[in-house]
Amino acid sequence: MTRLRPSGDTFRGKPEGFGLIGHGHSIKLGASGETTPWDHNFEGEFQLADDSFPSLIQWLDSLERPGPPFEVERKTKIQAETVDNARLKMLIDCIVSLAVRSPMHRERVVALAESLRGPLPERERNVLIGANMQRMQRSVVRSISGRGKVLVLFSPEHEFVFGNGFSQYLPAG
User: Fold this and answer.
1) What confidence tens digit (pLDDT) does each residue in 110-151 have?
2) Are 99 and 167 contacting, i.e. CB atoms less than 8 angstroms apart?
3) Where are the domains of the chain?
């Protein structure tokens, strides 16, 4: 498996090694191996989303997919789906959690500090990322809930994760 880093470099590795960031939901302020009274874990901020993914995927998989011919009029390709508030909140929680924990966002939260100071030591970098992510899930979900429209796009040939226009809801610091 190959991963594209934000710098444009590629990294090859085993699939089980991707997506795992040790202490990715922790803020550890002491020296390496040292604990302080201010250290804490904010995994609970993402628990609702993590618990919701299986049922969200099951629901998305149950949606009707318009099939070929794809040359038909655009309005016949769009299927309206009525969604209750609980399911919409679940969808927003899950999408936001993917964006907040994404490598792109993790890089954005340290970009300013590194542009001013140069590369940060890993421990300091992780504290800065954690401090920025800590309340972001709840804050962003609250700021976009109940507004706008959600589109679920299906493609017969390509994978599409989420589109342009979402990242502006994620402050970088």
Assistant:
1) 888 888 989 988 888 888 888 888 888 888 888 887 666 777
2) yes
3) 41-169
